[in-house]
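fyi for ur records
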Amino acid sequence: MTYQPGERVALEHTSDPHTLLRPGDEGTVRHYHPDQQVLEVNWDSGSCLSMLLEAGDRVRRLPAPTGEAGWEQVLDSVRVAGAAAGRDAAMWWAQNLIGGRATGDVHEVARQVLAGIDDVDPPVIDGLPTADRHVLAEDRDRYAEHTPQGSPAWEDLTGRQRDQTRWAWCDGFDAAAEAEVARQCRILLHPHGDDRDMSHLAPDRVRLGGPGVFAGDWAWTANGDGQMRIPVGFVGVLVDTWNGWAVFTCTRQVAEAIVADQQAARDRYRHQLAAEGVSGQRQDRMVDESMARLWFDGDVIVADETRVHDDPDAIERISPDPDGQHVVMGRAWTWLPVHPYDCDRIAGDIPDPPTPASTPETPAKGAPDA
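which gave:
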């Protein structure tokens, strides 16, 4: 069961020993938090006691007052209008804080805002566009503009109904503004310009058996703006840790991207040596001593580190598991879970947030923080 702002409820039971509310007292829903099952109510008596439904508090819905258009329909229309205004305000916020009018490191601003929204951090939440619940001089005009034909006139509303319309508009505004701010931040930070939420892939949320985005601890590189970024992150599933580093499985597509990235790194180093006047066999030797050679032999990845370790036997053949998943240089390279928002590109299909029933609960022992 869910509740909408503006709905009328009556108290059936509360375990709060200090409240003056009694069964049968009526009030208006202010907000409902479905995850915590907390129902915020403006009681007609003046109390603002919230109902902890999961702890045994109970209310019952009251029939909504009806007019020609239906009172709930009136509140829905006002709420939709507030949401439209909230989205507009969020777009202006984005322009000034992370868009064309912004200065400084907009990516860092976007990261801080998303983290603050996720943690319900008051300094961040207070900085978002919000409706002024106390100064609403345009109530009469707003009500007339956004309610269905046949709605009661503003002058005919009771004091409680006027409060309901104010709360409906403000709740629509605030919820939509916060959602649009988060969407704009995700678009800015997403390597593919997508607006999907990727907070479930943050390093501190990666668990054994769960998905993550991984890169080597060597991968951080300064971009043209001087910001430290990761050129490419690789989607995989964390299966183990090794000396505090991550071991993950990945698809053939991602494994090919890792092999290609290693070759690109070798090519960059080769060009650097050439610019320094190093060429021929000396150049080949220096590249091979610095970085492993990786290539596919059918379905098998061959990792040649003979010159890296000065060991003629340091050649590994990495076969896929029965599900076709690869562990590329696990327990050999220092891989880390990284935040997707720190990557310029992500190789692999970005997984959707898991359902609660499928979320791994065991944290990775010794999993390093990025």
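The CA atoms of residues 35 and 356 lie 11 Å apart. thats all i got for now
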